[in-house]
Amino acid sequence: MLEPDFFARDVVSVARALIGVRLAVAGVGGTIVETEAYHHEDPASHSFNGRTQRNAAMFGPPGRAYVYRSYGIHWCLNFVCEAEGSGSAVLLRAIEPEAGLEEMRDRRWRADTRLRCAGPGRLTQSLGVTGSMDGLALDAAPFALLPAAGPGEIVAGPRIGISRAIDLPWRFGLAGSRFLSRPFGRAQRGQVAPA
DNA sequence: GGTATGATTGACT
DNA sequence: GTCAATCATACCA
Description:
Layout: H1 11-17, E1 22-25, E2 28-38, E3 65-70, E4 74-80, E5 89-99, H2 101-107, H3 120-127, E6 143-146, E7 154-157, E8 171-174
Antiparallel strand pairs: 1-2, 1-6, 2-5, 2-8, 3-4, 4-5, 7-8
The chain binds a DNA duplex through strand 3, strand 4 and helix 3.
């Protein structure tokens, strides 16, 4: 498992540190290859305008899940960071499928393996994440998190799909991974994001 | 009460 | 490249 206070630090550092960490939900998962950081002072964040019923988990203790419905269709999975009340979380955007490949295929029979967990909505569908997991602790079932197997080159760039704070380089990915939701631009390769 | 807007995806021109 | 699906939230009347 990850160390207990892994999530109790600034959300951008956690987003970067999560690249390479292995995630499983009820035994189905793989290596995290793409994340984004969202902070309560960030106009693109759900927590920017304060606590609501939907984003309540973002203001809870770190190390828990925040699951919300996107565009009325998809679920998106976040990890709450920093401290209780801070309203910060890391969005999981892509993983490299490794465990439970048969279950992923059954849940997403149309997509091939490369696209199976490439994108926040696809990832939750393949792993079986739903709104019922909103607010659950990440150090207990059905979640399992294992430290990164080894160092990897990390790239940073602007976040995807937002209309405000579009210049903040708070999207992180594993360099050269085939399982990203979208490639990182050449200009961002090797760039170090601010903590 | 109404209406606009998404941390998306898949189908289609 | 365009566009619809589908709904919680925010904002306005």
